[in-house]
Amino acid sequence: MTLGAAVQTSLLRREEAAERHRKDPRGRMKTDSMRSSTRIPTPCEVGKDGTVWSTIHPGGHPGGRHQAQNVLTESAGPTAFAKRNIEDAQSAFSCLLDQKMLHHVCKCTVAEAHRVEKNNQWDLTVRELKAFLALLFVRGVYNKNIEMESFWSEEWGLAFFNSTMPRSRYREIMRFDKKESRRARLSTDKFALMSHVWRSFVNNCVACYKPGPNITVDEQLFPTKARCRFTQYMANKPDKFGIKFWIAADVETKYMLNAFPYLGKDLSRPKSQSVGESVVMRLMEPYLGKGRNVTTDNFFTSLTLSKSLLKRNTSLVGTMKKARRELPPSVASQRGELFATKLLRHERSILTVYQGKPKKSVALLSSMHHTVAIGTDRKRKPETVTFYNTTKVGVDVLDQMARLYSVKGATRRWPVAVFCNILDMAAINAYILCKRCMPSNIARRAFILQLAGELRAEHVCAKAGPAIECPLAEPQQTDKRRQCQVNIHCKQNKTKVCRGGCKRPVCGKCTVRVETFCSNCVPLS
User: Fold this and answer.
1) Quick check: helix, strand or coil at residue 143?
2) For 139, phi and psi rounded to 5 degrees?
3) What pairing do the DSSP bridges indicate for beta strands 315-320 and 44-46?
4) What digits encode the pLDDT tens for the residues 193-223?
5) Cα gap 273→260, rounded to integer Å
6) Are residues 490 and 432 in the same domain?
7) Is the pLDDT of residue 91 over 50?
């Protein structure tokens, strides 16, 4: 056979093979959709439970807004109820700890005092209870490590305490529950001694504020060694013993949105639902369906939780334990190039595996991003990791803020410890509400001192008598700026604010640090 005949025979064979490829076994021509099924499939990996993950490539630009799959559909900030009722620090605090809650605490305190003291004449008013709370706040601001009763010392104490109430009266008020019905209530509710106050506080927090697009869910260990059935030991916390609370917090403002205590095994939880999934769904219930994102750690994050939240128009970003059955085995055994990223997709969720350290990689699940961009710096962090690092700190920072000026003291009764945690959270939330509802840039320490002064003002005026004008009146604004006449902690600052009974102008720096302005004025802080 000549060379030309051989080439012609080869071309004929190729045409016959191409014709057979274009036809299905029944002799029909293949359409475009039929041809696409013959392409090489995308590389896939399978988890232990049969979950199929497909490999994807990075895309998009870091920080691009188009990558978010959910959009917030309501405005964030204080609600109309909060804006309508907040005028000062005390009104913001009263939106969270309302009159019904304070009346309940007074009623329980009086009942317990009658039982213990055998004195039916003992009484406590809401006005005096507010003054008692003011003492707790001032102690937390000045030095929470000093014994409480030392503040009444004539040599080393603060005049604020002696002018508010005697030390003996303060000792009598620390009661919070009725003992007659305690046994019956504890048989059905482990948290019965504080459940009414706690539920009311959380409901008020939900009613006063709408969070932004990002929410953090995490745990808080409130330190106490009081005897109760649900005290936890956690070796990775600064204080090893305490009562654990599950908390949802707004990432931007650190406002406590929702919370409940961990009381042991929850019998109402479905067996098919994990503890982490149950906690997140319960905390996020008031905020689902609005296009928000929730950030969690590896205790909560799972593919099932991601799918449950997506059904309610809420996305999830969180680290995952590599031993979870839905993840492919290669995730746990990956030891790749330093700062390398591997991306896998399952339906609407993306799994990011980032080698941040030579011998340690992190697995992160996101249902918020539909593409993942890689950073251009030396570490080449993927966008999901950067977003997680930004939004994971909500509860941790909230806990740090509460510890800084905590009203907690030594106690053997866990209801007192829980009530102290409520006061800490209420002071933070009231500060956030006050800053959002009023044009004020006051520091949190100064806000707590101002709140303490307003809480005890009514009680001090009642003791002085109705004919005497209360010296703790609201700050008054003048038309003309004048030099600060206290002039101890400032350099002749000018101000329009006049405080105290003497109506002397005082700047903000001296307001925070000075206790008295003149001999005619009672202590202001």
Assistant:
1) coil
2) -60, -45
3) unpaired
4) 889 999 999 999 999 999 999 999 999 999 9
5) 18
6) no
7) yes
